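Changelog note: in this version the structure field was regenerated for every chain. One regenerated record is shown below for reference.
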Amino acid sequence: MMLTRRQVLVGGGGLVAALSLSSQVAWANDVVEIIMHGNDDGSLVWFDPIGVLIKPGQTVRWTNLNSGNSHTTTAYSPANFDRPRRIPKAAKPWDSGYLLPHESFSVTFTEHGTYDYYCVPHEHAGMVGRIIVGAPETHHWTELVDADGDLPEEALKAFPKVEDIMTQGTIRRG
């Protein structure tokens, strides 16, 4: 069978698109690394990446590489310091406790939806992050919209948009 130039170009374009998409979304067997950072003087703290798209069954590992601070990764949930729920209702909330420099904490995500989390001592500084597992269902996003009430303004401003995570796969601190 002889392929036309057009068929070769269309097929090659599809392959390139598929390969570029696969690099944006972490796959189920990959551990996603999120680093906890901060300036030496403590004036700025952040998670990197701040937003990720993962598949159900994937593990996320947070590691504190900030030599001058301890940090936490804590799910927004009434179970954690009576914070508003910003994770799927069926999801199990997590709290790492304080991680000293070079310590790590991991969670495996199985429920589809949007998960927002924060660092307990640095939430007011905007140290928050967002994980999307699979395609977020409409009702999961609606739950988050109603939960903005008592979050610090800096935290609310720092969350990456769901749409950006869905199209880019990973959002680095900008």
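Spot check on this record: Residues 5-24 form the longest helix (20 residues). Residues 26-171 form a domain with the Immunoglobulin-like fold (CATH 2.60.40.420).
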